[in-house]
Amino acid sequence: MRKERKEALESFLVRLGVTMQDLSLMDTALTHSSYAYECKEKVVPEFNQRLEFLGDSVLSLVVSTHLYLAYPEMDEGALSKFRAFLVCEETLAELAQDLAIGDYLLLGRGECHMGGRYNPSILADAFESVMGAYYLDAGYEKVRDLLTRVLIDKIPELTADGIDRDYKTRFQELIQAQGQTDIHYEEAGFDGPPHNRTFFMKVIVGEKTYGTGSGRTKKLAEQRAAREALRLVKKKQG
């Protein structure tokens, strides 16, 4: 392993607040398939899909156990819906961004040029592979403690707007219940180069802007605009 890569991985572990015996596991966890496929070295490096598979199971077990113990009043259906929200792509991508996982990913040139470091799918997969790598190195209790810090403890924040991420539908239903039907979204601009663009959208009811949001896609920006609008309307309603 090159010195620069070793130092970068050690910096990432500091950010996570953990130590590892086998740093190569984390190196693999942060190596995307596009990098491996474009690699010109004689030995093609292992990439993170297998660790992602393992991390998905570890994550599910930790989250399921917590929900089972913390919410005894919930039935199976409610627990499953809650878990699905916590381990969905958008949630994991947000957590990955908090940990700056994208900064440490090895990506192929093409994927990097297309904004792979900010791609929600790639980030969510990398989050799972990181947990898989740490589980193999440190064991279940340690990875449970890590997930408690980076995910479980954030449940109140993550669920502040409920566990249904279809904010557009929720906002539409709320506004229609008030007798209003003229709801539409408009682009409010964008920022960044084509491969790393952030879009800004606003949700308008009649002629009044109720919320604005930004995201890597217009669809995501619309959802975030609707989320902000929901918060404002509910705040006014008390």
Automatic annotation (TrEMBL):
Subcellular location, principal: cytoplasm
CDD domains noted in UniProt: DSRM_RNAse_III_family, RIBOc
E.C. designation(s): 3.1.26.3
Binding sites annotated in the UniProt record for Mg(2+): 52, 125, 128
Keywords: Cytoplasm, Endonuclease, Hydrolase, Magnesium, Metal-binding, mRNA processing, Nuclease, RNA-binding, rRNA processing, rRNA-binding, tRNA processing
Matching Pfam families: dsrm, Ribonucleas_3_3
Required co-factors: Mg(2+)
Residue ranges occupied by any RNase III domain in the UniProt entry: 9-139
Residue ranges of every copy of the DRBM domain listed in the record: 166-235
Reactions catalysed according to its record: Endonucleolytic cleavage to 5'-phosphomonoester
Example GO BP: regulation of gene expression
Database matches in InterPro entries: dsRBD_dom, RNase_III, RNase_III_dom, RNase_III_sf
SMART domains from the UniProt entry: DSRM, RIBOc
PROSITE patterns: DS_RBD (PS50137), RNASE_3_1 (PS00517), RNASE_3_2 (PS50142)
Entry GO CC: cytoplasm
Subcellular location: Cytoplasm
Annotated catalytic residues: 56, 128
Similarity comment text for this entry: Belongs to the ribonuclease III family.
NCBIfam families the record matches: RNaseIII
Physiological role: Digests double-stranded RNA. Involved in the processing of primary rRNA transcript to yield the immediate precursors to the large and small rRNAs (23S and 16S). Processes some mRNAs, and tRNAs when they are encoded in the rRNA operon. Processes pre-crRNA and tracrRNA of type II CRISPR loci if present in the organism.
Subunit structure: Homodimer.
Protein name: Ribonuclease 3
Gene: rnc
